[in-house]
């Protein structure tokens, strides 16, 4: 049986270990997973260490906030209640947009949270509610970060000139997901091929034979 001093010395040792490497909590979760100071030090160093915290501490707002401020994805280990906490989820998606996938259904339909997520990572839009996946401003913010997410947009938004222009400017291959009408839009296609020459294959037949567009596409291939 350990003496009081041995127990205190061991705790001090574990505290120093997790301050240097949060993952060390994994080896001590049975003994110290419910020790608030140790867990807080661990998740501050590496948010994913929240996985080894006790249920009580994964429901502790301060602990979880420290974890998601370090790594947004750590929210997956938070309690259900805190995955429905607006401030916690907002902090998580600002750090990592993909953390949106772990938010409650209610918060995946929160416009501010979803907008923050897609401004961080365009692809996070796939985890938004159906309603917000078809919201013009949300989709516009998403394609500015990742043009290819245009493929997930509604037919109406794939026919929205501003959205498609932003998408192909970010990634020319997004032209593939534009409406037929916009794949026959000279400015849209020119922007796409200036970004990626191979995007020419997604243009309308008429524009695939447009001399200026073909030259722009070839020039892009050459300089790459």
Structure write-up:
The structure is a single chain. The chain has 224 residues and is mostly helical. It has a domain at 147-224. 50% of the residues lie in helices and 0% in strands. It has helices at residues 4-20, 29-32, 36-45, 61-70, 86-95, 111-120, 130-133, 136-145, 161-170, 186-195, 205-208, 211-223. Helix 4 packs parallel to helix 5, helix 5 (86-95) packs parallel to helix 6 (111-120) and helix 8 (136-145) runs parallel beside helix 9. The mean pLDDT is 95.
Blueprint (SSEs and pairs):
Layout: H1 4-20, H2 29-32, H3 36-45, H4 61-70, H5 86-95, H6 111-120, H7 130-133, H8 136-145, H9 161-170, H10 186-195, H11 205-208, H12 211-223
Class computed from helices, strands and strand pairing: mainly alpha
Which sheet architecture does the biggest sheet show? none
**N-to-C SSE series?**
HHHHHHHHHHHH
Termini separation comes to 69 Å
Q: Count of helical segments?
A: 12
Please state roughly what percent of the residues sit in beta strands, choosing from under 5%, 5-15%, 15-25%, 25-35%, 35-45% or over 45%.
Answer: under 5%
Question: What Rg do the Cα atoms give?
Answer: 24 Å
Show unreliable segments: none
Q: Estimate the mean pLDDT confidence.
A: 95
What is the 3D shape?
elongated
Can you count the beta strands?
0
The residue fraction in helices comes out at 40-55%
């Amino acid at each position: 049986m350990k003496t009081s001093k041995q127990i205190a010395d061991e705790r001090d040792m574990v505290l120093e270990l997790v301050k240097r490497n949060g993952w060390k909590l994994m080896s001590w979760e049975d003994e110290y997973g419910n020790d608030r100071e140790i867990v807080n030090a661990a998740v501050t160093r590496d948010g994913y260490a929240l996985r080894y915290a006790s249920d009580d501490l994964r429901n502790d707002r301060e602990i979880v906030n420290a974890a998601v401020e370090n790594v947004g994805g750590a929210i997956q280990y938070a309690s259900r209640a805190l995955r429905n906490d607006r401030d916690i989820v907002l902090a998580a998606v600002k750090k990592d947009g993909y953390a949106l996938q772990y938010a409650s259904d209610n918060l995946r339909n929160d416009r501010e949270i979803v907008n923050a997520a897609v401004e961080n990572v365009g692809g996070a839009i796939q985890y938004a509610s159906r309603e917000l996946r078809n919201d013009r401003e949300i989709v516009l913010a998403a394609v500015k970060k990742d043009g290819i997410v245009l493929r997930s947009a509604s037919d109406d938004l794939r026919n929205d000139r501003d959205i498609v222009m932003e998408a192909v400017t970010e990634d020319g291959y997004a032209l593939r997901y534009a409406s037929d009408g916009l794949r026959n839009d000279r400015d849209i296609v020119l922007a796409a091929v200036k970004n990626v020459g191979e995007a020419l294959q997604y243009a309308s037949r008429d524009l695939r034979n447009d001399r200026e567009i073909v030259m722009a596409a070839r020039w892009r291939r050459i300089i790459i």
